[in-house]
Amino acid sequence: MSFASLPPAVQSLIMGSAVLGAIVGLLAYVTLLERKFAARLQSRIGPYRVGPRGLLQPIADGVKLLLKEDVMPDSADRPVFKLAPVVFMIPCLLLFGVIPFAPGIGVADLDNGILIFLAISSLEIVGLFMAGWGSNNKYALLSAMRAVNQIISYDLPFIMTALVPVMLAGSLRLSEIATAQAGLWFIAYPVIGQIAFVFFIITAVAAENRVPFDILEAESELVAGFRVEYSGMKFAIIQLAEYAHVLGTSFLGALLFLGAWAGPGPVWLGPVWFLLKALAVFLLLTWVRWSFVRIRVDQILRVSWKLMLPASLLLLLATAATIVWRTPHA
Amino acid sequence: MHDRKKGVLAEAWTIGKAVGQAMRITFINFFRKPVTVHYPTVSRPFPNRFRGLLALTYDKETGEENCIGCRLCEFICPPAVIKVEMLKGEKRNYAKFFSLELYACEFCELCVQVCPTDAIIMMKSFDMATADRREMLLDKDRLHAIGLQYEPSWATGNLLRDMQQPPKKESAKPDAGSGKPDAGSAPA
Amino acid sequence: MPDVRALDYAGSERLTMNMGPQHPSAHGVFRAILTLEGETVVGVDAVIGYLHRCHEKLAETLAYVQYPTIASKTDYVAAMSSELAYVMAAERIGSFEVPKRAQYLRVLMGELQRIASHCLWLGTWCMDMGGALGGGATIFLYCIRERELVLDLFESLVGARLLYGFHQVGGVRYDLPEGWTAECRKTVALIEQRLGEYEGMLEDNPFFMMRTKGVGVISTALAQDVGISGPLLRGSGVEWDLRRSQPYSSYEDFAFTVPVETGGDCYARYKVRMVEFRQSIRIIRQILDGLPAGPISSRPGVKSLAQVKVPKGEAYARVEGPRGEVGCFLVSDGSNKPYRMKWRGASFSNLAVLPHILPGCSVADVVAIMGSVDPVFGEVDR
Prior knowledge:
The structure holds three protein chains of three kinds.
Chain A lengths: L7 H34 L15 H11 L10 H17 L18 H10 L1 H11 L3 H32 L4 H6 L12 H16 L11 H4 L9 H26 L12 H20 L7 H30 L4
Chain B lengths: L1 H29 L23 E3 L15 H5 L5 E6 L6 E8 L8 H5 L5 E3 L14 E2 L1 H10 L7 H8 L24
Antiparallel strand pairs in B: 1-4, 2-3, 3-5
Chain C lengths: L14 E5 L11 E7 L2 E8 L7 H7 L6 H4 L7 H16 L5 H31 L4 H24 L8 E2 L2 E2 L7 H23 L3 H7 L7 H7 L4 H4 L7 H4 L20 H24 L23 E9 L2 E9 L5 E7 L1 H6 L2 H4 L5 H11 L3 H5 L1
Antiparallel strand pairs in C: 1-2, 2-3, 4-5, 6-7, 7-8
Helix pairs in contact in C: 3-4, 4-5, 4-11, 4-14, 5-6, 6-11
């Protein structure tokens, strides 16, 4: 009774649960990785007292948040307030459904995988705005409005930049984009690959509300923004959802530019390489986060519409031109 | 049109360089040794002149209490946390009652400075976190116990006054005392 | 002051937002009631007094030998300048002489304190702008790491890290221990090198420039009208530094430049303070090279309460602290306690410029401006 002989529904169920479990476990430890990495950048040690070298820290955080009192403002819009973290979390976890972790392993390797990925990742705005609205708080509403504005503005150049590897690979299917890099990783593609990767990093940072574009949760001005009224497990869900989104985008980046599972060694080592590359992209995003001050929201939007959008359009045109020039005409 | 494009590229190059520079510095710091001191497993070396907990001392040779109950420390203390009562003896006086409210103490070292017999000194420790403030109301026995428990700082009344003394005749050495800075202040 | 009502647009709603006394970027306890229109600030109502501890009344009950130990609590970030102002005022009334070595030591401590204070300023300002979870925190931790080195120097000299009690009427209380000058030279050299790193992180950084250029412009005329001092004044084009114009405590013996910038915005003030860092290091090196031997006090060490009696009179002593002019006005009636002490806090007068420059900027700029004004509320509220 092998795996392939099970009915496809059961196959998907098993695969989905496995991926979900693995990803949630990874998420918890990715928070620890970020904290320790950031600490080393700042000449200090991150968490190290809980468990050996701090390895039990995420569990301690989880337990703490579970035990915290769940405070709900009196005049909050109750159903919206309660549903918002869940609506925020679902698209962020759904992203991992469309990523193939190895040839053949993955929940769903869709024909237009990357399109679905980009569409799902924009859905988190709904959850975000619900959180801001449901809190009945000026700070939260201000931040949620800024967030919607910013994410929509940066999704456009994000999509344009993600289309560059699609054009280079000639397919929307994520596994085909990965296998098309067998010879040359797209990041190593002369000029266009590097520029596309840089744009990808910039737009990814902005679309995920990370410093230097994290004005919407600027604690020094808006004190946690749209999350300000959340506490306890709801807060934990929002935090994890944000990290899930960042991790999902890191996986996408590793797949689009760094060749996904390509690496020396036997085939079963592929997912390990994929994970390592995704973590490398994640650490790059973290490194950017901990090196810069943030800019104002009108400056963020100006960068998006006046700089990133034209630049990514030009990049797309240049990619198209390069492909036509390099392909021998029939 | 051609000029504008060049300007944009040059600007993009400057921005890229500056961004790279900032990230380079964070990267350099990644490889520096962290400056964290693993307190409380590791204790930071205290400098010689550290102004820590207060204590009363005994005489080194005779073992008698140094305090003569003169109340100079009580009068000089800015927040008035010291209370002393003198007990008159035959050869010398003692302090019948000596209490110090450590929770209100400023740690200014003025009481140490005025003491004529070097009775009250400060120790190289600050470890007195407690859940009950009343434990920080130190009586005479407690102060003597602290004096025996920790390492004393360099400063005593006579040493401080000697350091501040304007010169009478010839060489008054400005570098009085053996207050060496601690090794822990060396940069990482 | 611009008329708040005149800026009302038809149909636009005004929001009153409280940047309350508990706020991650309030630099202490400061309440700013902002009237917002969308993102733009149209009015600000500053409320202070949350840190009032009756210093001026306290000085009337404490003798001249006792008060310098708590004078540092007004501007606790630049404790040495605060103590110096009080002690200089008392010495001025009584015409007490201060030995040369003591004067040089005072300058040495003052300049080291300036470095430590500016480290804190840079760290907290970048943290306000960059967030406690982001690049701001990185620069904050670097600056604090350097500040700790300076505090270690103070600790091996005085025994305390933040509130010293170093000055006394007639001189200073502590002399340099063995090995301190070598340690000081090493520390100062390290800080100079790390300064280069901070400038590398911030200079030309597009994000930093966007946040600070053109933000919070104080014109030269406004600067002179309102009565600000220190780097705010020098960043707006007015060349006024008490160490140069009215030298005290042997400052005329040292060579240093006074930085002046004409921009008047946050970036100009940043540049002024960065130059002040290096000039402080220059002065420190000159002192370490030429420290005279001699007594550290013209009056013997404190032995009793009635030791320092200042004759009848009054005097005002001013010191160029890291934030501006710190002044102490003492009225003496001939006893061992002052009759009246009035403290001129640099930050108190500097805050007066806020209602003039905040209207018209956005909420994010409020934080950047507050950081570049660099108030310490111990001085404001006393």
